[in-house]
Design brief:
The protein has about 210 residues and is an all-alpha fold. It has helices spanning about 1-20, 25-50, 55-65, 70-80, 80-95, 100-110, 115-125, 130-140, 160-170, 175-185, 190-210.
Length: about 210
């Protein structure tokens, strides 16, 4: 499907180039038009991935790109079982060798499997802030160590309220969980917001069942 879309895109560019050439448009102007199109496409991608609050756009993007490992994991978090989410994470950790990606997802997998020992090992190897501090604060929240679950290194505005939500989940305070989860979601954008929405929903479902 991706190849078909790319084929149509390049055909459209070629046709546009021919049309401009036949219309006598100067080469410099044609190049400027193509540059604007390229910038517009790049900006749209960046906006959907990192800036938008429109979760319908993000959901459609995730569905369209779910053959790519990271988006497959996001798709599984929204539509799959816990087992399918773990399988998707396994694909990521085998596909990506960069420590910040590999160990961040190993950390996520370990927390899903409630293996705090493995989570601590993975957290220490992420080696990129604020991800390392977020993982360590996350573990502190899961262990109920409220004095250790706050850090000035949590520079993304959604991070600290997310940790507070994890602590509320740990002590089974549903009202506080919802308060901090909503605060974290409100502060996030793009695929991060999408991930938080679905991850917190799963946790809230577990709280209700408990």
């Amino acid at each position: 499907m991706k190849i078909v879309k790319l084929t149509f895109f390049y055909l459209a560019i070629i046709l546009l180039a021919l049309t401009l050439s036949l219309a006598g448009v100067r080469l410099s102007i044609s190049l400027g038009i193509f540059a604007l199109i390229a910038v517009g496409m790049i900006y749209r991608h960046i906006h959907i991935l990192y800036r938008t609050n429109n979760m319908e756009q993000v959901d459609q993007w995730v569905k369209n790109h779910r053959k790519e490992p990271i988006f497959a994991a996001l798709y599984a978090s929204a539509y799959g079982t816990k087992e399918e989410q773990i399988q998707a994470i396994d694909v990521i950790t085998h596909h990506y060798k960069q420590p910040a990606i590999k160990y961040n997802y190993l950390f996520i997998k370990a927390t899903m499997e409630e293996n705090l020992g493995a989570a601590k090992v993975a957290a220490r190897q992420i080696d990129r802030e604020p991800l390392t501090s977020y993982a360590l604060c996350y573990i502190a929240a899961l262990e109920g160590r409220s004095a250790d679950m706050r850090s000035d290194k949590l520079t993304q505005p959604w991070m600290q309220p997310a940790i507070e939500a994890i602590y509320a989940y740990t002590i089974k305070d549903q009202a506080k969980f919802r308060q901090f989860a909503d605060d974290s979601i409100q502060q996030a954008r793009g695929i991060q917001k999408y991930a938080l929405i679905h991850n917190f929903k799963q946790m809230e479902d577990e709280l209700v069942k408990a």
